[in-house]
Amino acid sequence: MDPAQNVVGVGASGPRVLSNGVGDDVTLVDEGLYKLYLFNRNGKRSNIDGGIDCFREARDLRPSGHPKRCEALNYLSRCLRSRYRQFGDINDLTEAIECDRSALLLQPPEQPDRADTLNSLSICLKKRYEQEGDLQDLHEAIRHHHEALKFHPLGHPDRVITVGNLANCLDTLYNQNGNFSVLREAIRYHTESLSNVSTSHNHRLNTLSNLAVCLWRRYEKQGDIRDLEGAIGHHREVLNQRASDDYDRPNTLHNLATCLSTRHSRLGHIQDLEECISLHRETLDLQPFGHPRRSNSLGNLATSLRTRYLLQGEIRDIDEVIRHHRDALLLRPIGHPDRSETFSNLGGCLVSRYEQQGESQDLEDALECFRTALSLKPAGHARRDLSLNNLASCLGHRYRLKREAQDLEEAIRCIQETLHLRSLGHPLRSGSLNNLATCLEDRYGDMGDARDLDQAISYNREALEVEILGHPRRIYTLHALSRCLLRRNERANDLSDLEESITLLQGALDLQPTEHAYKAEVMAELASAYLRYAQLSHQSSKADVAWQLYEKAVSHSTANAHTRYDIARKWVSNSRGGSRLLAYRKCLELGDRYILVRSSVRSRLKLLSSLSHSGATDAAACAIGLGEVSTAVELLEQGRTLLWSQLGRYRTSLDALQEVDKDLAVKFESLSRNIESSTTYLTSADSQTSHSSSEEEASQYRRLTEEWDATLQRIRSIEGFGSFLRATLFSILRQAAAKGPVIILNISQERSDAIIVRSHHDPVLVPLDQVGPDQVGSLSLEFSEAVLLGSERARRLKINSILRVLWDFIQPVVETLQAIGIPKGSRIWWCPTSKLASLPLHAAGPHRGSKPNLPDIYVCSYTPTLTALITGLRIQKEESTASVNPTLLLVAQPEAPGQAPIQSVIEEIRKVHLVVPCIDLLINERGLHREVISQLQSHRWVHFASHGSQNTKEPFESCFHLHDKPLHLLDIIQAHLPNAEFAFLSACHSAAGSKVTPDETIHLAAGLQFSGFRSVIGTLYAMADIDGPVVAEEVYKYIYRHVLSHGQTKGSLVDFTDAAQGLNIATRVLRQNNVPVERWINFVHIGA
After folding, report:
1. How far apart are CA 232 and CA 754, in angstroms?
2. N or C: which end of the chain has fewer CB within 10 A?
3. Which of 612, 620, 532 is nearest to 549 (CA)?
């Protein structure tokens, strides 16, 4: 809160020309005053620079002994002070102080004009203290004001000004040392000043405003709501008397906003916060670019918006906050007195956004801000404690992210130094005690030293003693103390600790308004405490209370998705039965929302890789254990391939909506298109894109998603659209089995099962008692190593051994399929979970003698999800999968630059030409990136014969190598190919997924399927070049069998769904030719 400055200066009506001398120095003084007047009106640098030049020259023309030298020094000081206020150059302030000191030497102790110089010098010293933090400056300013007061006894017309300035200095001193007697003295002087001015006195408003500031400070110290209400009343009275163009109106707006924010913290009335934000916005409007206090207004608005963000969790608020702080930083260049505070504020907001979105770059940026802020406040600076405390808090966050001990130890050192600077009675000491307690609690968690935990409890208790009822930090301290007591109970089983923890948490809940975002965390902690109580007291009813609290916490709408997702995971870990299944549902729902916060598919994948990979499979296992197999299928569909599902929402059919509300459909389609473009563009953008540009793009993405969400809610409010884009029910998912059964293989630590989905029957459960995640993980690793073995015999033996193990896994499934009447030779689809997705299930079998293997029994395909297969089969549209001789786009790159030549590509082209009647060939330099993308738009069938590369670190950078540059997976995703049908990928690694996030199925074949191709043939790893022509020929011979048998080239129907059978025949040919096993099992079919 800013006190008003009662400084004698140039009035709004024009310059006060006081000089009575003659000569050039008089002209210079008059000219200087005029330029000062202009500067105060328009803020132009040229005016104040000119004024200073005039007064410097006038000073030089009035040497020592000149009767008017003191006047020139006073005016020069005033100009320098004005320039400092706008541009922040400390040299101006230093020169102004020198001018005032020189003037004082020329004024005898009894000279009345000495009081004005004393006041001016005091104001400059106070300003320098605020920038450099030297307490000597502040104490000297107070001494000079006291001396000036001797010239202004009671009844003197200028006493009001002097008393006001002295009170402001005392207020500043209190703000530094927390000495309550200093604040009382400031209030006494302000009260005296107010009692000696009439309602029409021109200093009444400033005095009233400054008294209000001190009353607010006293409230902060003592918590007496009457002080706060008095401050608000005074500020409203002042505001009502300040016109819209009043120079001090912005300051009054700010002070009233600060008091309203404080009352909001105490009483929780949201209208106080909304008015506060409105007042700050008005202030900013009154201070356009170039205004000397615009940076302050940006920071103040940002602070209020951050408060609303912490309450309601709206990401647009924190984005706007960060934008305002960055703008303020641009207005506070190196040397500006508030630059350090701006870095601190920006860092704090970056930490807040990190806490919601989990983006580690925000945390690193925040740490850099805090270190910079600290460097601007060296040892001895009066406000160094703030920067130390902020840095410590940020280091604590990074420690909890990376678990690097040096971060925690540095944080503890910073807080200990902070506490040394914040002695007993300091108003901010409790916050530092909280931070130190949290660090010690963290260290206890890692090292297990009970002394750390006991000390953390002690520090939290000390903090709580000074945070009286109504203190804004009290709820956080109550939570922190209760958390430590709960941890000590877990160590020592002391029931009194647990009971106190529950009491404290209940108290924290009672302190919070219903909508407060932090309430979710407190409810979750209280749930943990009740569960512990149930465990120790054997009262199962307490567990029921805990589960209800968890449910309330994850449903608390103002808490951010990250927090609610973490709480849902705790709920899963601490519940059973139906409550646990509900917890899993919430976990999958919130996990999806948490990931969507990230603005690019790359950042989403990075986040996914850091989360639990078994959420959906464990949820399904829970449902199966409760006998809800159909629910298990729904949960797997909801929680797997999240990235593809999220992108797919932006391409959902709007045909039905078009018939009901065309305008709404058009809007939703436009928003979806823009979001998808933003999501994939950000990922593939040049790495040299500026940080601010990337941040603005991310902010724009979030604004788009908010509008998209709001539009989605409008759609769902329409009759018949209530389930639009909600989790798909089993009654719809079962349609994926219209052409044959789909076998979902669910692998979980809890249990493993196969679920056979048929289109007109209940799902069939086949327990896989011998299969678990560890076995599958080991088998996946063995397989990836086996295909790389140098010896052909060693490869064959090892891979056959793996295929036999896989047969042991799935043989019960095959037997069940036969038992329910699925005839030999039928098509079946595998939908594996976890690392089973990287194993060749389609080739499983005994692989001994004449015993049939799986390819001899069924024609196998894969599908990442049931929804993907439904889309590929176009079940709902009842479209035919056959067409009349589609033209095949053949993209061939036998000699792609930078890649080894592929000798067999020409032979592959020849073989395909012999079978496929209509081909458009893009070979070598004709196969440029732009041309391939363009031709994909107009062809339903495509065949790639080229090098393919899998990028294991950045899966979205996997690519086909073309003549000029790679065709990346992202390029394929960005292509909209609604008429696409069949893709044959005769390239290495085209269907190889990520081992880190196997359930996401991120590879080239999946990208083509997402973009519209309904049937895809690909490879699991590097293929043998010589196999390409053989497999291609056999696949196309089967697809075009009717054309070939009738000798027709036109008019015959071909069906892309024949590709799976064609591949089955092709691999049989390879086996008959005694091709090594690792070569024929490499080829897989995905989709319809």
Report:
1. 68
2. N
3. 532
Q: Which two tokens stand for residue 220?
A: 């902060």
Which helix (H) or strand (E) segment holds residue 87: the answer is helix 69-87
Token code pair at residue 986: 């005769």
Q: What are phi and psi of 500, to 5 degrees?
A: -65, -40
Q: Is 494 helix (H, G, I), strand (E, B) or coil?
A: coil
Amino acid in position 370: F
* Contact partners, residue 109, CB within 8 Å, separation at least 6: none
Q: Cα(656)–Cα(665) distance, rounded to whole angstroms? A: 9
pLDDT beyond 90 at 85: no
Query: Nearest Cα to 418, choosing from 366, 379, 365, 364?
Result: 379
CA dist 349 and 809 (Å) reads 52
Kindly report which listed range (244-253, 334-343, 511-520) carries the lowest average pLDDT score: 511-520
Cα 785 to Cα 798: distance, rounded to the nearest angstrom: 10
Please report the pLDDT score of residue 196 as a whole number: 78
* Total Cβ atoms within 10 A of residue 335: 13
pLDDT for residue 683 is more than 90: no
User: Alpha-carbon distance 184 to 192, whole Å?
Assistant: 12
> Would you place residue 201 in the very low, low, confident or very high pLDDT band (cuts 50, 70, 90)?
low
> H helices of 640-741, where?
642-649, 655-660, 662-684, 691-716, 730-733
pTM, full prediction: 0.73
**Model confidence pLDDT, tens digit, residues 303-358:** 999 988 877 777 788 889 999 999 999 999 998 888 999 999 999 999 988 887 77
- Between CA 140 and CA 518 the distance in angstroms is 45
pLDDT in tens, 751-767: 999 999 999 999 999 99
Burial annotation 53-84 (CB, 10 A radius, 16+ → b, else e): bbbbbbbebbeeebebbbbbbbbbbbbbbbbb
Tell me the C-alpha distance between 1008 and 1014, whole Å.
Answer: 8
Q: DSSP of 866-927, one letter per residue?
A: HHHHHHHHTTTTT--SEEE-PPEEEEE-TT-TTS---TTHHHHHHHHHHH-S-EEEEEGGG-
Q: Mean pLDDT lowest for which of 173-177, 310-314, 539-543?
A: 310-314
User: Above pLDDT 90, what percent of the chain?
Assistant: 59
Q: What is the DSSP letter of 727?
A: P
Extended beta strands in 324-451, E state: none
Residues in the chain: 1088
Q: What's the rounded Cα separation, in Å, for the pair 477 and 430?
A: 9
Using one digit for the tens of pLDDT, what is the confidence trace for 648-666? Answer: 888 888 989 999 999 999 9
Max CA distance (Å), the chain: 123
Contact between 235 and 189 under an 8 Å Cβ cutoff? The reply is no
Using the 8-state DSSP alphabet, how is residue 828 labeled?
Answer: E
Element (H, E) at 745: strand 742-747
The pair phi, psi for residue 970, each rounded to 5°, is -65, -40
Tokens 């700010």, residue located: 254
Which structure tokens are listed for 825?
A: 């030779």
Residue the block writes with tokens 């729902």:
589
Q: With bands split at pLDDT 50, 70 and 90, how would you rate the model's confidence at 685? A: very low
Question: To which H or E segment does residue 1019 belong?
Answer: strand 1015-1019
Backbone φ/ψ region at 818: left (φ over 0), alpha (ψ -120 to 50), beta: alpha
Segment holding 345, helix H or strand E: helix 339-357
Q: Which is nearest to 325 in space by CA: 307, 344, 351, 353?
A: 344
**Considering only 345-349, 467-471, 875-879, 911-915, which range has the smallest mean pLDDT?**
875-879
Number of neighbours of residue 13 by Cβ within 10 angstroms: 7
Q: Which residues pair with 831 in a beta bridge?
A: 744
Please determine, for residue 191, whether its predicted confidence score (pLDDT) is greater than 60.
yes
CA distance 472 to 478: 11
